[in-house]
Specification:
The complex is a heterodimer of chains A (267) and B (218).
Chain A: H1 9-19, H2 28-40, H3 66-78, E1 84-89, E2 93-96, E3 99-102, H4 106-112, E4 118-121, E5 126-131, E6 135-139, E7 144-146, E8 158-172, E9 180-184, E10 188-192, E11 196-202, E12 205-212, E13 215-219, E14 225-227, E15 231-236, E16 241-245, H5 248-265
Parallel strand pairs in A: 8-9
Antiparallel strand pairs in A: 1-5, 2-3, 2-4, 4-7, 5-6, 6-8, 7-8, 8-11, 9-10, 10-13, 11-12, 12-15, 13-14, 15-16
Chain B: H1 36-43, H2 47-69, H3 72-88, H4 100-116, H5 118-121, H6 133-142, H7 146-165, H8 168-179, H9 184-191, H10 195-213
Helix pairs in contact in B: 1-2, 2-3, 2-4, 3-4, 4-9, 6-7, 8-10, 9-10
The chains are: A alpha+beta (267), B mainly alpha (218).
Protein backbone atom coordinates (compact mmCIF):
# COMPACT_ATOMS: atom_id res chain seq x y z
CA UNK A 1 0.00 0.00 0.00
CA UNK A 2 1.23 3.54 -0.70
CA UNK A 3 1.79 6.17 1.91
CA UNK A 4 -1.43 7.90 0.88
CA UNK A 5 -3.43 4.77 1.69
CA UNK A 6 -1.97 4.65 5.19
CA UNK A 7 -3.00 8.03 6.58
CA UNK A 8 -3.06 8.25 10.33
CA UNK A 9 -6.08 9.85 11.98
CA UNK A 10 -3.99 13.00 12.62
CA UNK A 11 -3.01 13.18 8.94
CA UNK A 12 -6.62 12.76 7.90
CA UNK A 13 -7.57 15.55 10.28
CA UNK A 14 -4.87 17.80 8.85
CA UNK A 15 -5.98 17.02 5.29
CA UNK A 16 -9.61 17.75 6.13
CA UNK A 17 -8.62 20.99 7.86
CA UNK A 18 -6.88 22.24 4.70
CA UNK A 19 -9.86 21.23 2.59
CA UNK A 20 -12.13 23.15 4.95
CA UNK A 21 -10.22 26.40 4.59
CA UNK A 22 -12.60 29.00 3.24
CA UNK A 23 -12.08 31.00 0.08
CA UNK A 24 -10.38 34.34 0.62
CA UNK A 25 -12.01 37.54 -0.58
CA UNK A 26 -9.88 40.26 -2.12
CA UNK A 27 -10.42 43.93 -1.37
CA UNK A 28 -13.25 45.08 -3.64
CA UNK A 29 -11.31 48.12 -4.89
CA UNK A 30 -8.28 46.01 -5.73
CA UNK A 31 -10.39 43.42 -7.50
CA UNK A 32 -12.21 46.07 -9.52
CA UNK A 33 -8.96 47.78 -10.53
CA UNK A 34 -7.40 44.51 -11.57
CA UNK A 35 -10.46 43.50 -13.55
CA UNK A 36 -10.49 46.79 -15.39
CA UNK A 37 -6.82 46.52 -16.19
CA UNK A 38 -7.16 42.93 -17.39
CA UNK A 39 -10.14 43.63 -19.62
CA UNK A 40 -8.58 46.73 -21.18
CA UNK A 41 -5.07 45.30 -21.39
CA UNK A 42 -3.60 48.08 -19.27
CA UNK A 43 -2.24 46.03 -16.40
CA UNK A 44 1.25 46.98 -15.35
CA UNK A 45 3.89 44.95 -13.60
CA UNK A 46 3.51 45.67 -9.89
CA UNK A 47 6.47 47.52 -8.43
CA UNK A 48 8.72 45.12 -6.62
CA UNK A 49 12.24 45.79 -5.44
CA UNK A 50 14.72 43.38 -6.97
CA UNK A 51 17.73 43.59 -4.72
CA UNK A 52 20.93 44.34 -6.61
CA UNK A 53 24.18 43.13 -5.22
CA UNK A 54 26.85 45.78 -4.89
CA UNK A 55 29.38 45.74 -7.68
CA UNK A 56 32.91 46.79 -7.80
CA UNK A 57 33.54 49.89 -9.85
CA UNK A 58 35.34 49.55 -13.19
CA UNK A 59 39.09 49.36 -12.90
CA UNK A 60 40.90 51.94 -14.98
CA UNK A 61 43.98 50.81 -16.88
CA UNK A 62 47.09 52.74 -15.88
CA UNK A 63 49.92 53.53 -18.32
CA UNK A 64 53.24 55.36 -17.97
CA UNK A 65 53.22 57.52 -21.21
CA UNK A 66 51.00 60.60 -20.70
CA UNK A 67 49.69 60.69 -24.32
CA UNK A 68 48.88 57.01 -24.39
CA UNK A 69 47.27 57.41 -21.02
CA UNK A 70 45.13 60.27 -22.32
CA UNK A 71 44.00 58.27 -25.38
CA UNK A 72 43.19 55.27 -23.33
CA UNK A 73 41.45 57.42 -20.78
CA UNK A 74 39.41 59.19 -23.44
CA UNK A 75 38.46 55.89 -25.02
CA UNK A 76 37.45 54.48 -21.68
CA UNK A 77 35.51 57.58 -20.73
CA UNK A 78 33.72 57.43 -24.07
CA UNK A 79 32.25 54.03 -23.22
CA UNK A 80 28.60 54.28 -22.36
CA UNK A 81 27.43 53.30 -18.87
CA UNK A 82 27.32 49.52 -18.71
CA UNK A 83 23.99 47.70 -18.80
CA UNK A 84 22.28 47.67 -15.42
CA UNK A 85 19.51 45.23 -14.61
CA UNK A 86 16.50 47.32 -13.66
CA UNK A 87 14.20 44.37 -13.10
CA UNK A 88 13.60 40.74 -13.79
CA UNK A 89 10.43 38.73 -13.55
CA UNK A 90 9.05 35.36 -14.32
CA UNK A 91 10.26 31.83 -13.76
CA UNK A 92 13.01 30.36 -15.86
CA UNK A 93 16.58 31.23 -16.47
CA UNK A 94 18.37 33.82 -18.53
CA UNK A 95 20.99 32.13 -20.68
CA UNK A 96 23.98 34.35 -21.34
CA UNK A 97 26.44 32.87 -23.82
CA UNK A 98 24.97 29.45 -23.16
CA UNK A 99 25.25 29.67 -19.39
CA UNK A 100 22.03 29.77 -17.37
CA UNK A 101 21.64 32.53 -14.79
CA UNK A 102 18.59 32.51 -12.49
CA UNK A 103 16.20 35.16 -13.72
CA UNK A 104 15.62 36.49 -10.22
CA UNK A 105 19.30 36.97 -9.41
CA UNK A 106 19.77 40.53 -10.66
CA UNK A 107 23.37 40.74 -9.51
CA UNK A 108 24.40 37.61 -11.34
CA UNK A 109 22.56 38.73 -14.48
CA UNK A 110 24.24 42.14 -14.38
CA UNK A 111 27.65 40.54 -13.99
CA UNK A 112 27.06 38.17 -16.89
CA UNK A 113 25.90 40.77 -19.41
CA UNK A 114 28.41 42.31 -21.80
CA UNK A 115 28.33 43.84 -25.29
CA UNK A 116 27.86 41.08 -27.80
CA UNK A 117 26.47 38.65 -25.24
CA UNK A 118 24.04 36.13 -26.68
CA UNK A 119 21.04 36.27 -24.37
CA UNK A 120 18.20 33.76 -24.43
CA UNK A 121 15.15 34.07 -22.20
CA UNK A 122 13.74 30.72 -21.07
CA UNK A 123 10.38 29.99 -19.47
CA UNK A 124 8.57 33.26 -18.92
CA UNK A 125 11.62 35.13 -17.69
CA UNK A 126 11.76 38.80 -18.64
CA UNK A 127 14.61 41.26 -18.27
CA UNK A 128 14.78 45.06 -18.27
CA UNK A 129 18.22 46.64 -18.72
CA UNK A 130 19.27 50.25 -18.89
CA UNK A 131 22.40 52.17 -19.75
CA UNK A 132 22.56 55.35 -17.70
CA UNK A 133 20.31 58.08 -19.07
CA UNK A 134 20.61 56.73 -22.58
CA UNK A 135 18.47 53.74 -23.38
CA UNK A 136 16.40 51.03 -21.71
CA UNK A 137 15.52 47.69 -23.25
CA UNK A 138 12.85 45.24 -22.14
CA UNK A 139 13.81 41.74 -23.30
CA UNK A 140 10.53 39.86 -23.43
CA UNK A 141 9.98 36.19 -22.56
CA UNK A 142 11.15 33.73 -25.17
CA UNK A 143 13.50 36.19 -26.87
CA UNK A 144 16.94 35.47 -28.26
CA UNK A 145 19.13 38.51 -28.71
CA UNK A 146 22.70 39.59 -29.17
CA UNK A 147 23.16 42.47 -26.80
CA UNK A 148 24.39 45.74 -28.30
CA UNK A 149 27.07 47.75 -26.55
CA UNK A 150 25.72 50.68 -24.58
CA UNK A 151 25.82 53.76 -26.85
CA UNK A 152 29.15 55.57 -26.35
CA UNK A 153 29.01 58.95 -24.69
CA UNK A 154 30.59 61.38 -27.18
CA UNK A 155 32.14 59.93 -30.34
CA UNK A 156 31.37 57.04 -32.67
CA UNK A 157 27.98 56.72 -31.09
CA UNK A 158 26.62 53.90 -33.20
CA UNK A 159 25.93 50.53 -31.66
CA UNK A 160 24.27 47.39 -32.99
CA UNK A 161 22.51 44.30 -31.72
CA UNK A 162 20.49 41.43 -33.08
CA UNK A 163 17.07 39.96 -32.42
CA UNK A 164 16.70 36.40 -33.64
CA UNK A 165 13.26 35.75 -32.14
CA UNK A 166 10.92 37.32 -29.60
CA UNK A 167 10.45 40.98 -28.78
CA UNK A 168 12.40 43.95 -27.55
CA UNK A 169 10.80 47.10 -26.24
CA UNK A 170 13.16 50.04 -26.41
CA UNK A 171 12.92 53.54 -25.06
CA UNK A 172 15.59 56.21 -25.22
CA UNK A 173 16.38 59.02 -22.81
CA UNK A 174 18.11 62.38 -22.96
CA UNK A 175 21.52 60.73 -22.94
CA UNK A 176 20.79 59.03 -26.26
CA UNK A 177 20.57 62.23 -28.27
CA UNK A 178 22.85 61.96 -31.28
CA UNK A 179 23.43 58.24 -30.90
CA UNK A 180 22.22 55.49 -33.19
CA UNK A 181 21.12 51.96 -32.27
CA UNK A 182 20.74 49.37 -35.01
CA UNK A 183 18.83 46.12 -34.49
CA UNK A 184 19.08 43.35 -37.07
CA UNK A 185 16.62 40.51 -37.47
CA UNK A 186 16.77 37.66 -40.00
CA UNK A 187 14.77 39.68 -42.52
CA UNK A 188 15.11 43.37 -41.58
CA UNK A 189 17.24 46.10 -40.14
CA UNK A 190 15.98 48.77 -37.76
CA UNK A 191 17.67 52.09 -36.89
CA UNK A 192 16.75 53.92 -33.71
CA UNK A 193 17.76 57.54 -33.24
CA UNK A 194 15.62 58.56 -30.31
CA UNK A 195 12.23 57.04 -29.72
CA UNK A 196 10.11 54.39 -28.03
CA UNK A 197 9.41 51.30 -30.07
CA UNK A 198 8.94 47.58 -30.11
CA UNK A 199 10.78 45.23 -32.41
CA UNK A 200 8.93 41.93 -32.74
CA UNK A 201 10.41 39.03 -34.62
CA UNK A 202 7.78 36.39 -35.37
CA UNK A 203 7.88 33.29 -37.57
CA UNK A 204 6.26 35.26 -40.45
CA UNK A 205 8.62 38.22 -40.27
CA UNK A 206 9.63 41.32 -38.35
CA UNK A 207 7.31 44.02 -37.06
CA UNK A 208 8.31 47.39 -35.69
CA UNK A 209 5.74 49.38 -33.71
CA UNK A 210 6.71 53.01 -33.09
CA UNK A 211 5.13 54.87 -30.20
CA UNK A 212 7.01 58.13 -30.61
CA UNK A 213 9.71 59.61 -32.78
CA UNK A 214 10.68 58.08 -36.09
CA UNK A 215 12.38 54.78 -36.75
CA UNK A 216 13.93 53.66 -40.00
CA UNK A 217 13.33 50.09 -41.07
CA UNK A 218 14.09 48.11 -44.15
CA UNK A 219 14.28 44.59 -45.42
CA UNK A 220 17.77 43.37 -46.18
CA UNK A 221 17.01 43.73 -49.91
CA UNK A 222 15.48 47.20 -49.78
CA UNK A 223 16.30 50.74 -48.69
CA UNK A 224 15.44 51.96 -45.21
CA UNK A 225 11.98 53.45 -44.86
CA UNK A 226 10.94 55.87 -42.08
CA UNK A 227 8.22 54.51 -39.81
CA UNK A 228 6.38 57.41 -38.15
CA UNK A 229 5.01 57.36 -34.64
CA UNK A 230 1.72 55.57 -34.15
CA UNK A 231 2.49 53.16 -36.96
CA UNK A 232 3.98 49.77 -37.57
CA UNK A 233 5.92 48.38 -40.45
CA UNK A 234 6.02 44.67 -41.12
CA UNK A 235 8.67 43.01 -43.28
CA UNK A 236 7.70 39.46 -44.17
CA UNK A 237 10.05 36.59 -44.78
CA UNK A 238 9.60 36.84 -48.55
CA UNK A 239 10.69 40.46 -48.44
CA UNK A 240 7.40 42.23 -49.02
CA UNK A 241 6.38 44.86 -46.48
CA UNK A 242 3.35 46.71 -45.25
CA UNK A 243 2.68 49.80 -43.12
CA UNK A 244 -0.26 50.02 -40.74
CA UNK A 245 -1.46 51.52 -37.45
CA UNK A 246 0.58 50.26 -34.56
CA UNK A 247 -0.77 47.33 -32.54
CA UNK A 248 -3.04 48.56 -29.72
CA UNK A 249 -1.45 46.28 -27.16
CA UNK A 250 1.98 47.65 -28.06
CA UNK A 251 0.71 51.21 -27.76
CA UNK A 252 -0.39 50.48 -24.22
CA UNK A 253 2.63 48.44 -23.18
CA UNK A 254 5.14 50.85 -24.71
CA UNK A 255 3.42 53.77 -23.00
CA UNK A 256 3.71 51.99 -19.69
CA UNK A 257 7.32 51.01 -20.36
CA UNK A 258 8.28 54.53 -21.31
CA UNK A 259 6.62 55.91 -18.18
CA UNK A 260 8.29 53.33 -15.98
CA UNK A 261 11.74 54.18 -17.32
CA UNK A 262 11.31 57.92 -17.79
CA UNK A 263 12.13 58.91 -14.23
CA UNK A 264 15.19 56.73 -14.09
CA UNK A 265 16.61 58.22 -17.24
CA UNK A 266 15.82 61.90 -16.51
CA UNK A 267 18.91 64.06 -16.17
CA UNK B 1 -4.69 22.72 -31.49
CA UNK B 2 -2.61 25.76 -30.63
CA UNK B 3 1.00 25.00 -29.81
CA UNK B 4 1.63 25.99 -26.22
CA UNK B 5 4.52 28.40 -26.64
CA UNK B 6 5.59 30.11 -23.46
CA UNK B 7 3.12 28.90 -20.86
CA UNK B 8 3.20 25.14 -20.50
CA UNK B 9 -0.05 23.27 -20.65
CA UNK B 10 -0.27 20.31 -18.29
CA UNK B 11 -2.16 17.23 -19.31
CA UNK B 12 -5.94 17.59 -19.04
CA UNK B 13 -7.13 17.43 -15.45
CA UNK B 14 -7.59 13.84 -14.40
CA UNK B 15 -10.83 12.72 -12.82
CA UNK B 16 -10.17 12.22 -9.16
CA UNK B 17 -11.83 8.97 -8.13
CA UNK B 18 -13.33 8.95 -4.67
CA UNK B 19 -11.76 5.89 -3.14
CA UNK B 20 -9.66 5.29 -0.04
CA UNK B 21 -8.76 7.92 2.52
CA UNK B 22 -9.04 10.79 0.06
CA UNK B 23 -12.77 10.24 -0.15
CA UNK B 24 -13.29 11.19 3.50
CA UNK B 25 -14.02 14.85 2.75
CA UNK B 26 -14.71 16.69 -0.50
CA UNK B 27 -11.89 18.71 -2.03
CA UNK B 28 -12.79 22.30 -2.72
CA UNK B 29 -11.34 24.53 -5.33
CA UNK B 30 -12.27 23.10 -8.72
CA UNK B 31 -13.82 25.72 -10.95
CA UNK B 32 -16.13 24.87 -13.78
CA UNK B 33 -14.22 25.71 -16.99
CA UNK B 34 -15.55 28.38 -19.30
CA UNK B 35 -17.20 27.19 -22.51
CA UNK B 36 -14.86 26.75 -25.43
CA UNK B 37 -16.45 29.53 -27.42
CA UNK B 38 -15.78 31.94 -24.57
CA UNK B 39 -12.15 30.82 -24.36
CA UNK B 40 -11.80 31.40 -28.08
CA UNK B 41 -12.97 34.96 -27.57
CA UNK B 42 -10.52 35.28 -24.70
CA UNK B 43 -7.79 34.30 -27.17
CA UNK B 44 -8.93 37.18 -29.32
CA UNK B 45 -8.85 39.41 -26.23
CA UNK B 46 -12.51 40.23 -26.53
CA UNK B 47 -13.18 42.51 -23.54
CA UNK B 48 -16.41 40.81 -22.56
CA UNK B 49 -14.80 37.39 -22.68
CA UNK B 50 -11.82 38.66 -20.71
CA UNK B 51 -14.22 39.92 -18.08
CA UNK B 52 -15.91 36.54 -17.90
CA UNK B 53 -12.52 34.85 -17.64
CA UNK B 54 -11.50 37.17 -14.83
CA UNK B 55 -14.74 36.68 -12.95
CA UNK B 56 -14.46 32.91 -13.24
CA UNK B 57 -10.84 32.53 -12.18
CA UNK B 58 -9.82 35.53 -10.08
CA UNK B 59 -10.92 34.10 -6.72
CA UNK B 60 -9.34 30.78 -7.64
CA UNK B 61 -5.99 32.42 -8.35
CA UNK B 62 -6.08 34.90 -5.51
CA UNK B 63 -6.98 32.21 -2.99
CA UNK B 64 -4.17 29.95 -4.16
CA UNK B 65 -1.61 32.74 -4.00
CA UNK B 66 -2.80 33.88 -0.57
CA UNK B 67 -2.56 30.37 0.83
CA UNK B 68 0.89 29.83 -0.63
CA UNK B 69 2.34 33.17 0.47
CA UNK B 70 0.40 33.77 3.67
CA UNK B 71 0.67 37.50 3.00
CA UNK B 72 -2.14 39.54 1.52
CA UNK B 73 -0.09 42.41 0.08
CA UNK B 74 2.33 40.06 -1.63
CA UNK B 75 -0.63 38.03 -2.86
CA UNK B 76 -2.18 41.12 -4.47
CA UNK B 77 1.05 41.88 -6.32
CA UNK B 78 1.49 38.30 -7.45
CA UNK B 79 -2.11 37.96 -8.56
CA UNK B 80 -1.67 41.10 -10.66
CA UNK B 81 1.44 39.59 -12.23
CA UNK B 82 -0.45 36.40 -12.97
CA UNK B 83 -3.22 38.18 -14.81
CA UNK B 84 -0.74 40.36 -16.64
CA UNK B 85 0.98 37.22 -17.91
CA UNK B 86 -2.37 35.66 -18.75
CA UNK B 87 -3.34 38.69 -20.80
CA UNK B 88 -0.02 38.65 -22.66
CA UNK B 89 -0.38 34.96 -23.41
CA UNK B 90 -4.14 34.99 -24.02
CA UNK B 91 -3.66 34.25 -27.72
CA UNK B 92 -1.91 31.02 -26.77
CA UNK B 93 -4.66 29.59 -24.54
CA UNK B 94 -5.56 26.04 -25.51
CA UNK B 95 -9.33 26.33 -25.80
CA UNK B 96 -9.75 22.55 -25.70
CA UNK B 97 -8.45 22.34 -22.14
CA UNK B 98 -9.44 23.65 -18.74
CA UNK B 99 -7.19 26.67 -18.12
CA UNK B 100 -7.23 26.17 -14.34
CA UNK B 101 -4.07 24.01 -14.18
CA UNK B 102 -2.28 26.48 -16.46
CA UNK B 103 -3.31 29.36 -14.19
CA UNK B 104 -2.16 27.37 -11.16
CA UNK B 105 1.21 26.84 -12.82
CA UNK B 106 1.67 30.54 -13.52
CA UNK B 107 0.57 31.43 -9.99
CA UNK B 108 2.83 28.84 -8.37
CA UNK B 109 5.83 29.97 -10.39
CA UNK B 110 5.11 33.58 -9.47
CA UNK B 111 4.98 32.62 -5.80
CA UNK B 112 8.33 30.88 -6.16
CA UNK B 113 9.79 34.13 -7.49
CA UNK B 114 8.55 35.87 -4.37
CA UNK B 115 9.99 33.20 -2.08
CA UNK B 116 13.35 33.62 -3.72
CA UNK B 117 13.32 37.41 -3.50
CA UNK B 118 15.46 39.08 -0.89
CA UNK B 119 12.65 41.22 0.45
CA UNK B 120 10.50 38.21 1.22
CA UNK B 121 13.36 36.33 2.83
CA UNK B 122 13.97 39.32 5.07
CA UNK B 123 10.57 38.63 6.50
CA UNK B 124 8.80 41.75 5.35
CA UNK B 125 5.15 41.14 6.03
CA UNK B 126 2.69 43.88 5.47
CA UNK B 127 -0.65 42.17 5.86
CA UNK B 128 -1.09 38.64 7.09
CA UNK B 129 -4.20 36.72 6.21
CA UNK B 130 -5.16 36.78 9.87
CA UNK B 131 -5.78 40.51 9.70
CA UNK B 132 -8.10 40.31 6.80
CA UNK B 133 -11.46 41.97 7.41
CA UNK B 134 -12.83 40.19 4.38
CA UNK B 135 -12.15 36.90 6.14
CA UNK B 136 -14.31 37.98 9.04
CA UNK B 137 -16.98 38.99 6.56
CA UNK B 138 -16.82 35.62 4.83
CA UNK B 139 -17.05 33.86 8.15
CA UNK B 140 -20.03 35.99 9.00
CA UNK B 141 -21.76 35.00 5.82
CA UNK B 142 -21.54 31.34 6.81
CA UNK B 143 -22.92 31.51 10.31
CA UNK B 144 -24.48 34.02 12.70
CA UNK B 145 -23.21 32.33 15.87
CA UNK B 146 -20.37 34.49 17.32
CA UNK B 147 -18.87 31.67 19.33
CA UNK B 148 -18.87 29.35 16.37
CA UNK B 149 -17.35 32.12 14.29
CA UNK B 150 -14.56 32.64 16.79
CA UNK B 151 -13.78 28.93 16.94
CA UNK B 152 -13.81 28.61 13.17
CA UNK B 153 -11.53 31.63 12.76
CA UNK B 154 -9.08 30.33 15.31
CA UNK B 155 -8.98 26.95 13.60
CA UNK B 156 -8.33 28.54 10.24
CA UNK B 157 -5.52 30.67 11.68
CA UNK B 158 -3.83 27.58 13.10
CA UNK B 159 -4.11 25.71 9.84
CA UNK B 160 -2.79 28.63 7.79
CA UNK B 161 0.12 29.11 10.19
CA UNK B 162 0.93 25.41 9.92
CA UNK B 163 0.84 25.65 6.13
CA UNK B 164 3.09 28.70 6.19
CA UNK B 165 5.58 26.82 8.34
CA UNK B 166 5.97 24.04 5.77
CA UNK B 167 8.96 24.02 3.44
CA UNK B 168 7.83 25.55 0.17
CA UNK B 169 7.78 22.33 -1.91
CA UNK B 170 5.55 20.66 0.67
CA UNK B 171 3.40 23.75 0.98
CA UNK B 172 2.83 23.71 -2.77
CA UNK B 173 1.88 20.04 -2.70
CA UNK B 174 -0.77 20.29 0.00
CA UNK B 175 -2.26 23.64 -1.09
CA UNK B 176 -2.50 22.61 -4.73
CA UNK B 177 -4.08 19.25 -3.87
CA UNK B 178 -6.29 19.89 -0.89
CA UNK B 179 -7.09 23.59 -1.18
CA UNK B 180 -7.01 24.06 -4.94
CA UNK B 181 -8.38 20.64 -5.81
CA UNK B 182 -5.80 19.62 -8.39
CA UNK B 183 -5.01 15.95 -8.90
CA UNK B 184 -1.53 14.57 -8.22
CA UNK B 185 -1.15 14.09 -11.97
CA UNK B 186 -1.87 17.78 -12.64
CA UNK B 187 0.42 18.81 -9.80
CA UNK B 188 3.23 16.62 -11.09
CA UNK B 189 2.96 18.23 -14.52
CA UNK B 190 2.74 21.69 -13.00
CA UNK B 191 5.78 21.20 -10.77
CA UNK B 192 7.76 19.33 -13.41
CA UNK B 193 8.17 16.19 -11.32
CA UNK B 194 7.15 12.57 -11.64
CA UNK B 195 3.71 11.52 -10.44
CA UNK B 196 5.24 9.40 -7.68
CA UNK B 197 7.34 12.34 -6.53
CA UNK B 198 4.28 14.56 -6.34
CA UNK B 199 2.44 12.00 -4.23
CA UNK B 200 5.47 11.60 -2.00
CA UNK B 201 5.68 15.35 -1.43
CA UNK B 202 2.02 15.39 -0.54
CA UNK B 203 2.48 12.53 1.96
CA UNK B 204 5.36 14.34 3.60
CA UNK B 205 3.33 17.55 3.73
CA UNK B 206 0.44 15.81 5.47
CA UNK B 207 2.82 14.18 7.93
CA UNK B 208 4.40 17.55 8.74
CA UNK B 209 1.03 19.28 9.06
CA UNK B 210 -0.30 16.53 11.31
CA UNK B 211 2.71 16.94 13.56
CA UNK B 212 2.25 20.71 13.80
CA UNK B 213 -1.49 20.57 14.31
CA UNK B 214 -1.49 17.67 16.75
CA UNK B 215 -3.78 18.51 19.61
CA UNK B 216 -4.60 21.97 18.26
CA UNK B 217 -7.64 21.23 16.15
CA UNK B 218 -9.79 19.66 18.82
Amino acid sequence: MSDLERLTPEQEQARDAVRALPPLAARPAYRARLREGFVTGTLDTPARVVPLRSRTRPVWIGVTAAAAAAVVLAFALNRGPRWEVMGTSGAGAIEVDGRAVPANDAGAVTAALHPGARVRMTGDAELVIQSGHSVAIDVMPGSEVTLPAPPPRWIARATAGELRTGELRITTGPGFHGARLAIATPEAGIEVTGTTLAVIREPQGTCVCVLEGTVRMGGHREAMVPVPHGHLRYVFGDGHAKMDDMRPVERVQLTLFRAARARGMAE
Amino acid sequence: MKPPAGPTHPAPPSVHTSTGPEAASPRPGRVEPLPREVLERVCARDPEALGAFFDRYFDHVFGLVCRLLGDRTAAEDVTQEVFLKVHRAAHQIDTARDPAPWLAAIATNACRDVWRSGAFRLGRRSASLDDDPALAASLGSRSGDPERLAVAREREQKVQQAIAALPEPLREAVVLHDYQGLSHQDIAALLGVEHAAARKRYSRALAALAKQLKGLLG
